[in-house]
TrEMBL record:
SUPFAM superfamilies: Periplasmic binding protein-like II
Family the entry assigns: Belongs to the bacterial solute-binding protein ModA family.
Domain of life (superkingdom): Bacteria
Name recorded for this polypeptide: Molybdate ABC transporter substrate-binding protein
Record carries keyword Metal-binding: yes
Length: 273
């Protein structure tokens, strides 16, 4: 056998062994980094939760969820919770459009249904809190607003959420219950934007959630109105298909629904589910 033939055979065997080794390594890596569904479990080699969780949540949840996110990271070193807050309708559209997210918390079952109907939810969404509307006025309530009907007064600058957003749909439902018609100076994309118009004194009043009035502190004054009882919103939460760290995402959802999570949420003004 010539030297060149022996060299060719030796090179071929070496390449075959290397290829087998790489294949085995890739298979081992795949088994260790994903669960049965193909998504990462979110646990390290010791079984502790790890990895980043991306949560899409209604704007009204900003303060409460930020607090819960910090508590979660403290309880589970090695994890990170990243939030994207906004109008529930816009968030739902982003999810169905392919935006990467692990958890969705909506301000209404209607916007959650957009996600479930598209097949982007994993499991059945669960209602974890409810929220009620309130009128936010300028500090000291200089316009003496005492009812929803007062918002229809001539010359009063009132802001509402867009009706595609849960807070806007709820406001319209309350107005219908009171048989009232109101033309706002603007429709805002989410509840924080509506509230901010009053904070910046660009509007005299806004119909927002009670939780947002409380979060604003002395920057606004809140006025309850009976029609809000006809427009209470349920807030559902769900794990999303395609979640990268499923165990970690499910653990965050569990915290939100736990007694500890409910304490934070009700402390912010949310209602029990």
């Amino acid at each position: 056998m010539t030297r060149s033939v022996r060299l060719a055979r030796r090179t071929s065997r070496t390449l075959q062994m290397a290829g087998a080794g790489v294949a085995a390594l890739l298979a081992l890596s795949a088994c260790s980094s994903t669960d049965g569904s193909g998504s990462g479990s979110g646990k390290d080699s010791s079984g502790k939760l790890s990895g980043e969780v991306t949560v899409f949540a209604a704007a009204s949840l900003k303060e409460s969820f930020t607090t819960l996110g910090k508590e979660f990271e403290k309880a589970h070193p090695g994890t990170k919770v990243t939030f994207s807050f906004g109008g529930s309708d816009a968030l739902a559209a982003s999810i169905t459009g392919g935006a990467p997210a692990d958890v969705f918390a909506s301000a209404s079952p209607k916007t959650m249904k957009v996600v479930t109907d598209a097949g982007d939810a994993s499991g059945t969404p669960a209602t974890f809190v409810r929220n009620r509307l309130e009128i936010a006025t300028l500090p000291g309530n200089p316009d003496k607003i005492a009812s929803l009907k007062d918002l229809t007064r001539s010359g009063l600058k009132v802001v509402l959420c867009d009706q595609a957003v849960p807070c806007g749909a709820a406001a319209q439902k309350a107005l219908d219950a009171g048989e009232l018609k109101l033309t706002p100076v603007s429709y805002e994309e989410d509840v924080k934007s509506a509230l901010n118009k009053v904070v910046l004194k660009e509007a005299d009043a806004a119909v927002v959630y009670r939780t947002d009035v409380r979060a604003a502190g002395d920057k606004v004054e809140g006025v309850d109105f009976p029609e809000s009882a006809d427009a209470v919103n349920d807030y559902p939460i769900t794990l999303l298909k395609g979640a990268h760290h499923t165990d970690t995402a499910q653990a965050f959802i569990a915290l939100v629904r736990s007694a500890e999570g409910r304490k934070v949420l009700t402390g912010a003004g949310f209602l029990e589910p």
